[in-house]
Amino acid sequence: MKYFFPFFFILSVFFDSSSHAKVYVLPDPLNIKIFFVENGHDDFLLKLEAIERSTATVDVFTHLQSYDDAVGKPLISALNDAIKRGVRVRFAAEQMPSLFENKLKGNAPFDLLTKTIASIPDCNSRAYHLTVSDKRRSGFSIFDFFHHKMELINAGRSDEIAFISGRNNSGLSVRDADFTVVITRNDPNKPSAVSTILEHFEDSWHEASLMKGLGSEELRVPRWAPPSTKSFETQALLDGASNELQYLKNILFESRPDTKRRFLIPTQMNLTSNSLFEQLRAQQQSPEGIQRDLLQSDNEQFIAETIRSAKKSRISLMNADFTPQIEKAITEALVDHGAEIELFLNSEESDRVAHTFGKQFLLSARALERLENAVNANPLAKLKIYFLDPSKAATAKGHLGQIKYNHGKVMIADGKVIISSDNLNRGSAEHNSETAVSFEGEAVSQYVENHFNRLETIFRAPECNEILDASARSQHPINRMLIKTLSLFF
Question: Which domains occur in the chain, in start order?
């Protein structure tokens, strides 16, 4: 049997309004053109230049934000400069992931622009740093995350740009296998679907203020002054950028003709969010009193149904600890109509999450056995599981040669493309607020198929050390109880 293991990205679709997923009404026509960015260095440098060129607004919501590396320093500097020239900036990030990225050495420097904001009379820019203390004080679990990864520039204007991704804003993330969609207006004189993404940001911003439990006027002074120049900080990023970066800048910022046809015109788009925090507030209950196993994400339900009904699915995932609902959808697709499913996962040597938290995110022997039984039940079924091979990536050309880790949250199922922040595990289903966007269109589908074809060149079939038994999963150097204990001190 051939293996290919997925990490599924949330597909946005039509959800019951009584659930805790929100379906957004998109304009008709969509009036958007999009392109995808695979190279993490290109991704961040495009975002950085978009912020530097902003004239009205910048809205950033990121789960993980580094502050003291070649990504964090230029970003904070660019946002500070934007505030000083009168751009309204809103920035929200989590504290807890930053602790882990900095190897639990202490709080990451909180340089969230607040000194600049406080120094400007009547400044309407705001920055939220969502801390463990905020969550505990407002009744949320320390595992409740705003897991969004989105940036909006000049939203509502003719030159608006939206970035939606599975990629965090950190120096580690630029070297990940990940995926970003860049969305802008097709006709600059007509409204576009970016306005709906702005509505989603507004909802998420409101939820962040609820978790923060503080007035938006409460500001904290940064621990260091952002650098006055970014040239030194960005050199490492420029070294990793592709030859296409300047071309992408030209068509995105200079409106030059798209001679390479990088812009794609989707025929359909959907946007949704499994807004756990808003649902808890609507129920007027303390987050501590909610039975979280009953709050499975409707996003997850839709993705599960998409997998279950598709004849062919290709899924790139960060980890293999997906929920029972997702595993059931995979097995039913294999058994019921002989589906072809390909899953792309991290390997033992590439999984930095496993290095920190143990091996519970790798594929269990029992899960593999269930998948094998499903394949054997239908002669037409095909399941391919691939694991990232760092040695193959090291010899690859272009951005593939920089990849150290698979952080992907992208999927294509019978031509439908889904890009999401959702990990399709219990954390995303029961704790997080997530973003998912889906597109359809022949050119869009073909690009993503080619993306998976490129990934195949740096992935391989699994080895025995990546298929774990139940006992291996309990051997965590850091477990959730330890994290809970550590959180008392932050």
Answer: 31-253 (3.30.870.10), 268-487 (3.30.870.10)
